[in-house]
Amino acid sequence: MLLAPPRIARYNSPVPPVSQTIRVKVLFFGRLKELTGHAEDSLEFADAATIEQLFAFYAARHPELAKYRSSVVASRNQEFAAWDTPLRSGDEVAFLPPVSGG
Amino acid sequence: MAPLPHDDIYQLVREPIDMAALARHVRAPEDGAIVIFDGFVRNQSRNRPTLFLDYEAYESMALAKMREIGAQLHEKYRIHRVVMVHRLGRLQIGETSVFIAVSAPHRAAAFDACRFAIDTLKRTVPIWKKEYFEDGAVWADGELPPAPGATPRAKPAS
What we know:
The complex is a heterodimer. Chain A is about 20% helix and about 25% strand. Chain A is α+β, with helices and mostly antiparallel strands. Chain A has a single domain (about 20-95), classed as Ubiquitin-like (UB roll). The model of chain A is unreliable at about 5-10 (pLDDT under 50). Chain B has helices spanning about 20-25, 60-75, 105-125; strands at about 10-15, 35-40, 45, 50-55, 80-85, 90, 95-105, 125-135, 135-140. In chain B, helix 2 (about 60-75) runs antiparallel to helix 3 (about 105-125). Chain B is globular, with a radius of gyration of 18 Å.
């Protein structure tokens, strides 16, 4: 699957450059889980991609998801992450609706 | 962040919360005050009678965030022990969903820390509740946790 034109995450990391397969685990919670029909997915892609591009990939499959983009935050490896965060193989990305614990 | 005192408790549980035992746990001879927050299921939401609630969490991250809040409490306030427990699964009206207890030598720090803890938990810990009514169910309106903005490091290097 091609998410986007190749883009290299050139920061301090041992991650191999483009053209390496990147595999990420993706989690959905709350209404996002209901919308996509799954709590967990595993995705493999050939090019560097960001969290934003990952979300867009799922929004293309589940158009209702796009409506929630502005009320979703993302996390990468259990830390809140910016949408332009580049993904690395082995990452666990989660899409989180507004939290309502308590 | 500094390591948490080993006698703090941070938990996600699926059974009723034993509040008396947890309150005893934070109480120590060198303390002079305990402040407790007991959050429980209300019987209505915007004047619609609630039947029950279902809570779910991103458990690994929720626990990490709860421990982060604990570390902040110890940094910011002169407190002794912290207990922070959130229950998941189906909860009936009146059942405790979140329990926080903070002990301290003096009351002001315990009040401030307990307030900071519940406010921060509600804003940043990935837990969600679905409210069930006679005529359907909705995910509760929540708060969007503050997420980092655009990452400068993601820009292509020149």
